[in-house]
Each structure stands twice: as structure tokens, then as C-alpha cells.
Amino acid sequence: MIEEGRALFLQIAESVEDSIVDGSLPEEGRAPSTNELAGFYRINPATAAKGIAMLVDKGVIYKRRGIGMFVAPGARERLLAERRAAFADRYVEPLLAEARTLGLGAEDLTDLIRDRASAAAAAIATEGDAR
What we know:
Order of helices and strands: HEHHEEHH
Structural class: mainly alpha
Strand content: 5-15%
């Protein structure tokens, strides 16, 4: 899971965020401790603590003194909103710029996306039938 060339503390924070977004860490649920993360990823506890501190600063997790770290209320929706904005910046803006270059309008893009989504769904269904 650890990727070379990317800061470990960022990867730890993203991993916890992924668990919150996918629901495996529910709101008000106990989050992994610094020591648990350090042991699981075989990293220095200070590195794991830096990732956890990032999440605390973002208001995604909070500490209950003497009990541990917990997922903050509203954390999932906050993370989804953040990811939607990043998705738009990273993928939608370049898509729109290229569409303008190609002379494609909003309806053309909608049709293209709908066609590709249908083809992908059909491929998944076919793959499932083959099993």
C-alpha cells in the first residue's frame, strides 16, 4: 500500500480518509491509533502521528482523552465535498477545456459520457456472467 516517492504521513492520512469515505470507519467510530497505524504499516510512530494530526487539524477525527481517536460527526460528508471539488479540478476542468478545443458542447459531452458508462456497465455485466 505504501507508495515510493510520496510522503508517508500523507498516505496514512489518505488511507484513514478512504476508510471514512467507504464507511468502514463510521462517524463516531473509533479510528486507529498512532501506534496501530505505525505497527500495521511498519513505520515510525512519529510519521503516523503526523498523518493523524493532519486529520485532527481538518476536523475529520478527534481525540477522547484516555480513550482514543474517533471519527468526527460530519467527517464523511466533509471529505466527500473535498473530493468532489478536487475531482472537478483534476478531471472535469481539463475535460471541458479539451471539449472546447474539439468543438464539443455540453450535450455532446453528456452523450459521450452516457455512452461510455453504458459500455462499461455492459462489460461488467458480461464479466459477471462469465464467472
